[in-house]
Batch of 3 targets.
Target 1
Amino acid sequence: MRIFSKLISHIFNPLFFPLVGSILYFFITPKFNPPEAKRLILLAILILTVIIPFIFFLLLRNLGWITNNGLTHIKERKIPLYIFIIVIYITIMKITTFDFSIELYYYFIGILGALLSCLIMIYFNFKASMHMMGICGLTTFILGLSFHYEINITLGLSLLVLITGIVATARLYLKSHTYPEIIIGCFIGVITQFLTFGYWL
């Protein structure tokens, strides 16, 4: 069970959710986007939101500023969060712009809001679950897309809800988070996406 929980935590790493949300958006949206444009957008998002933060993470680990992969110590989360906030901001300004896609633009705005909320909580010595922020934010975004495009994707949403439960269970089993940290992380992920609905839904 411990190996399975670690595997789940790695597969559903918070770094992956901006890219996964973008992939699902292109899969769901009925809007036409040239294949070349989609590939370039996804490649840019991959580089900015996954590869660059991962490189910085390895650098911080080698410098001794991070002691473990799970960032279990609250203070160790500050610098990675600042880095991720910066790359998400760059992504919004340069890649998922308002003119390109209003839906993706506000999805990333929601992600930025969630990261800022998580950072603020760190200064109050509270460690919200970023895994839950990511999966709950993604689920809320996909729910919004289903309403926006009037598409029945109940099966996909059910799968995301199931994954949410699995991720929460894995984080609790590994004792990476407490119940309040899981709940608050889920709440932040949902609310930050939900607040953007009024601008694009």
Target 2
Amino acid sequence: MGIRNERLRWQLATGLLKALHLENLAKRYSRKTVLAGFNLINGGLSIALVSFVALVTQEAFIFPSLGATAFILFYIPMAQPASPKNTLCGHLIGALMGLLSLYLFGLQEQSSAFMTGVDMPRVGAAALSLGLTGCLMVLFNVAHPPAGATALIVSLGLMPDPAQLPVLMAGVALLLAHAFAMNRLAGIPYPLWSTEAGSPAPSTSSVAQ
């Protein structure tokens, strides 16, 4: 699995360079340097795109856990946690469990923990939101680690308004759209919805040896 992921990452980077007619860079620099540069550019561009939409609309399209999602989408794009299904469902579960925890502990009208500090109700909300998120992601087979951060973002009071949920999910969808375009441009068969467990790796005949 580690070798397969490494080949996929290399195919992703070199495929995109080829599409942009910059394939000589893959010959000039080491594999690690090319992969690092690829993640630098695509990670930055994806977050810049979502942040720009947030700037124009003045809505909370951008939130911290999207950074971890962006890394997964461009570093291990064919892994199940990087699929649109896992990414969308994971963040949705995290946000919903965060909101549920706020209401259960009576914190929906309170300022965020970063403004007022952490008290016992906030401890309970944070713990419950993360526990429920992990539990449900396992039960529904939609593991996406950054969703745990989304649960904490909501339960700690940074996004406590249920009206922010559609905006939050739209931010995730924007990030996925960028990842889909970049991965497909590079020749990686990034899925429209779900990556099947045990699916064969794409051909690596074009991968530099």
Target 3
Amino acid sequence: MRYHDLDVINEIDWGITVDNASSKQGGSRARLRDIAAHAGVHISTASRVLNGDPRGEVSADTTARVLAAADTLQYKPNSAARNLRLRRAGAFGLLIPDLTHPTYATLVRGALQEAEGRGLAVLITEVPDGAAAIGLRRLVDDHRIDGLLIATASDRSAQADWFEGHGVPTVYVNRRAEGKPTVTVDDEAGAALALRTMYDYGHRRVGVISGPHDVDTARRRLDGFISAANTLGIPVPVESCGEYTANGGASALTSLMSDPNPPTAIFASNLMSGIGALSRASAHGIRIPDELSLVVFDDAEIADFTVPALTRIKMPFDELGALAVRSLIEVLDGRQARDLRVETPPQLIGGASLGPNMNVGMARQ
């Protein structure tokens, strides 16, 4: 049974007193049926809209009418009643590789905001195992976690295996996982945008600092970059694979620039590796962007405060977190597992680290 089916049967539990003229006079409660009547739709349609059903079954016009009616009547769901009725804890777990990484901070923020709007809590822990992970496992054993969002970077995680082995509904975030519901952004398109931008600036000898081979995002970004290079008819970029860390980026920069014919532009497929590359270039006396251009893949604003400011490919990681929460709700509703991708395209954020290839000038398209 799905959320909106239960809403139709038991929708009185969703009502709250509203501060409008009718409630003040008669103490009435804004309920799902009131929203449906106000919007001129069936009660199940109103329920799908208010539950954020992402399946696309309700038209944009109808959705707008329902949301306007909910706003007018100041309607809010009674999350406690809903969770009690469904015998749910009203809490999700979220596993991430690094609590300090700006990208994951953005993803977490999107998940928290989406969950809060639905009256849900998100408990966050990082890998590898630690006290927080042990506490999360204890909550699972006590049936106080309804599901899990797994945003670990590598293909396999001991924690993920443990949770799956205990039958916890899971959604993989920012990575693909065979046979599991996943939510991703278009990493390939983001990397391709970086390559095309370098090409437009006249760069034909380019390098890429990729991540570890066992990281799904690293593989997809590299695939997108190389595919775009092949389409434009320039040599396949040099790959220097390292960890998604500043040290990894610094080492990769040294490796790339030691080539007899070094690149004039480099794409770092991760912010921290890009910052490491920028630091190492400065240490080697390589002027950016006069002698080397640098583009990074990330949406963290900290890139705007490096010297020079990094040109970056902004990805909708906040939307990724929000969509992941909605996807996990689908799984808990018993809907068919599916792979979702955030539709918002990557965006180029200009910075001082990208300039024209001084040997050939700007390319003409």
